[in-house]
Amino acid sequence: MRYGTGIAAWLMALAVLSTGAFAQDGWESIFDGKTLEKWDGNPEFWKVEDGTITGQTTADKPTKGNTFIIWRGGETADFELKLEYKIIGGNSGIQYRSFEVPNEKWVIGGYQADFEAGDTYSGINYGERFRGILALRGQETVIGDDHKPKVVKEIGNTNEIQTKIKKEDWNEYHITAKGFTFTHKINGVTTSIVTDEDKADRRAKGVLALQLHAGPPMKVQFRNIKLKQLKPEASSTSSTGKKKILLLAGNPSHGFGAHDHLSGCSLLANLLNASGLPVEAEVHSLQKAGWPSDEKLASANTILIYSDGGGGHPFNTHLDQLNALTSKGTGIVCIHYGVETTKGPAGAKFLDWTGGYFEPDWSVNPHWTAHYSKFPDHAITHGVKPFATNDEWYYHMRFRDKMEGVKPILTDLPTEETLSRGDGPHSGNPAVRTAIKNKEPQHMAWATQRDDGGRGFGCTGGHNHVNWGNNQFRKLILNAIVWTAGADVPSDGVPAGTVTVDDLLQNHDEPIPADFNKARWQAILDEYNKQ
Description:
The protein is 20% helix and 32% strand.
């Protein structure tokens, strides 16, 4: 009995050691074998059975289209995944760096590690709703800017690979995504390799999901699902290993000291590039260079617009192009007048991208002093202390219904004096007057995590150029830019530097007036530094 106890203790110790080593290697079990916690699929087809995630259709209960169970524990960018699968009838697959199809629940598109009950497709890389077959079994391919895969090497014989795959039994699938190279292995045998150089269509991150295919009755099961997230620097779209940030500076507007788009963007970009974070910021002047090239837009992890808006918003004539980018996870940041567009198709896109926008005859644009004393727990507020600025703080934004998916970041209660003007497209309306009379707090900055994996942020401040000298306001905007790019925001926020009046006078696209009062701006900065 003592001998048995000793053996049991030794085995237990060994198990603990091996488990610890596995955890130290970065692997995480993402299915507990008992529940579908953090998994989201149609309960008519997905369940836990015998310690497995099981998807099943029958003749009496078919699925009308391919349906997926989605892992809600995070995104996949650079990673390794190992799992065991068994399939009886039909075909299935493992989606990664993928997107959820709008308005179609449990429907996914993106890279897919395919497998089937047949003899042809197990191990291929298939682009579900995403360019079709990217590599057949036994192929290494490169996808170019023409969106088509080119075979560069034969890595195995498809028939020989098939002999290594067990029918109606358990097989191990191993997927590695590093940069834009994707390797599939089944039972230790490499089945396909894809390098995606299609800058317009490739995806740097997205959801993980398991497929149940439409068609004849089938049953698929998954177990021992383990994920290893690789280091962030390995998952960048930039050759430098950094998240790319594109700041679009609009045309000159309002005269010097207000709507200084080029100067404001340049200041933010310089601070981001000096922050020491894995980000790379570039300013693009719409006045000097026009709309950016497709390649420049596609390479950006997030796109910031600081420009005039309304009917002339630069985004309005590029909605489809931007929507194609955001559906693949590109972030969007709108600053000040850049949050205003027109009601209708443009407004609907802004709701999708950032969660809210300035809608004429609903929102208002008074100048007033807002006091921000409390902040939500969010990466954008890391290190930000209470502050106040006098600005053209728009409010009464048009948000998604019931604020679905929208996180307020800056909130205050404007006074009734902010509605001293008569009703008009920007000055007032019955709805906003009722809201302020009822003392309904208003949100002047907000954030959203989109279903496509991308992030959006809007902020109505930024009219007065001198306000970029407010350390807290500036840090909050820098945090938001980094967050929408998909990079980690430090616990104390992005380093916001020390901004002087001379710094604020750089890179203007309008001449500095001869009578400019530098001492006045300095006095404002001195007051900000006391906050």
